[in-house]
Design goal:
homodimer; alpha/beta; 2 domains; 12 strands; TIM Barrel; 17 helices; Enolase-like, domain 1; five-stranded parallel β-sheet
Chain lengths: 433, 433
Amino acid sequence: MPTFTSLDVTDVRFPTSRSLDGSDAMNKDPDYSAAYLELRTSDGESGASLVFTIGRGNDVQGEAIRALSHHVIGRDVEEVLADIGRAGAAMIEDSQLRWLGPEKGVMQMAIGAVVNALWDLRCMREGKPLWLLLAELSPEELVDLVDFRYLEDALTREEALEILERALPGRAARIAQIQDRGYPAYTTTPGWLGYSDEKMERLLREARDQGFEMVKLKVGGDLADDLRRFEITRRILGEDFLVAADANQRWGVAEAVAAMEALAPAHPYWIEEPTSPDDVLAHAEIRRRISPIKVATGEHVHNRIMFKQLLQAGAVDVVQIDATRVGGVHENLAILLLAAKYGVPVCPHAGGVGLCEMVQHLSMLDFIAISGTMDDRRIEYVDHLHEHFVEPAIIQEGHYLAPQLPGAGARMLPASIETHRFPDGPVWKELTR
Amino acid sequence: MPTFTSLDVTDVRFPTSRSLDGSDAMNKDPDYSAAYLELRTSDGESGASLVFTIGRGNDVQGEAIRALSHHVIGRDVEEVLADIGRAGAAMIEDSQLRWLGPEKGVMQMAIGAVVNALWDLRCMREGKPLWLLLAELSPEELVDLVDFRYLEDALTREEALEILERALPGRAARIAQIQDRGYPAYTTTPGWLGYSDEKMERLLREARDQGFEMVKLKVGGDLADDLRRFEITRRILGEDFLVAADANQRWGVAEAVAAMEALAPAHPYWIEEPTSPDDVLAHAEIRRRISPIKVATGEHVHNRIMFKQLLQAGAVDVVQIDATRVGGVHENLAILLLAAKYGVPVCPHAGGVGLCEMVQHLSMLDFIAISGTMDDRRIEYVDHLHEHFVEPAIIQEGHYLAPQLPGAGARMLPASIETHRFPDGPVWKELTR
């Protein structure tokens, strides 16, 4: 009987701050990074996953993942994979580690990474990409993965089952549709604050020509700057193109309302992260005051309990899940079910390192087995760092094509890991010479 | 000019799980621990502080503290100490570490630890205990320590100043009162789930005889058990004694309401942590449905933005700050000001390792310079592990006596640190032999 033998974590960092890729109002100089893990078994298999960070602290994230080793090492592989839901719950309930959250920050992301690595291994063994493996589970099997603690005032197990059962009839047709056409994407590639107007113009034209039907601009630095960049965008893409704005938590309520009133003539489609991701009540107030501009948030929303409240309070028009922020596939499944219950579309956050590769599986699952629709739903796409993955995300005519290889999407190329290992890989040795 | 030369972190753990001290419905086997730091200067001084954890993960917490080294090492001591507010803000705004929160979990606790160590050093240099040093700052100096980002829809800088100015006239008299009589305490020593009825009865009698006017019992394991323990408590302490209950996040809304309806005949004074600390809306709903039993929470509430919402939503009757959960003295000052604005009493969480020693300074500051009252306010006290501190908390007639030594309270005895160092100190070597 194979057992888990090691949980290897590598600190992988890309020196993106040199090019201002990924620069926004709060995160000025990110070095896109991954706390990368491989969970190895005694018969030579492995499950891979990662947590995305933006540089410093990637080592802390790695320590948090290592701190979960006792939950898997030495255990029977078949037994754990037969009930990944239980394995995830045991990590959440760890009676000592729980104090460091509970259910938030680096520990929750670490739990998510181990959960996702277990799913990656199960996908490898069953020879399926994650989206398809999950989309073929029964409603009961899916619901068994969800931790309903603290959710039942908004969503009970029975209601979740009902949502999944309602979507059962069309599953096969929707699988075919995903295989055929993929899932809609939007792009943030042109929108980073650090780019010159010329670079932005070129990237906007490319985005339109590549078939994207929506772009997103970073805002929240200087208002005059934001207005100019929106003007350029409207000049190039026209008045009807969907253009979202992303403030990356820059404002309080009054500042958000004032800024959106100023930007309203350029009719942004949504404002993303107008304020602190923790501030449910502020999001609700902002949404009330800037309607019809939509409010979106989620990439920093730390667990299902916060998403539940955003939905209960009518605080968001768009739920933005992230593949590595919460407790993995299970908690994202809970969030997808909550969004379906409240009829709010999910438009995942992506970009970074591996987030596109990972989160596409969840949107495809949402379409096939949960919400059953792609209306008003698009996955973010940023054209960075895909070449380091075994199966890079592929965009065609503004759509993510369905991944075909077995796995959950996070597996990186060994050479990429080796080259970008921090601080002793060749890329970093060269930079610090 | 002295500079900061090192940030030394030690993993200190006490094997408390052997005696079931500290056992509750969610934390069954805590090994009370401290990620202990000393921030040293080139002229041989140091500021000490700690983050309390309950065992596993204390090493992760230590790594998080070390990750902040670049914010202090090499910097001019006088310059940093002259504006600790700025030093704290710079750590919160760290453009890469911010991704790991923002403002939550181990990173926020780490920032709090460094902030608190800077205050400890400043206290040592000025020869004052923290409560007195802070209580002698001007309203402007205090307000300058607060980060008002995300707070201004509830509390502006001007309103905070007004609160502090209103309390100016009586400061000297209240300092004298604190020096004379101290600050009221309540005790959780008798209430842990793991104790036998006999041990509990003995500890309840001792609590009353020591002059405490309130005790707290852990609940949320087995309801019949909770009822029996409340019955014993009422038999020993009478009907008028204040007896609070603490569920340690065990329930959802419906379970909390049902449990409190069952416990109502024993008239618990408050129910603490009835549900997830993240769930503002659930606390509000529970409070509405179990009135007049009060709702208390805070020891796991991760920042000022969450406390703000608990107050805005009318979700709590009692705010429970914790000395090491949030971003240190500065963020706790923001929370004290928010509570004063909303007229809600603050009854700090304490116990653990060093929490009593640290948090008493903040309640004393609240009395002297912020709320100006002790009505309905008591600091938790648990009779554990005080002997390891340079200045242990002292209780007399149910009151915390005012600390007299210079410092912020967290400084431990070198021998205690050495003996309990994990995993290689003698206590742990003996246990794992």
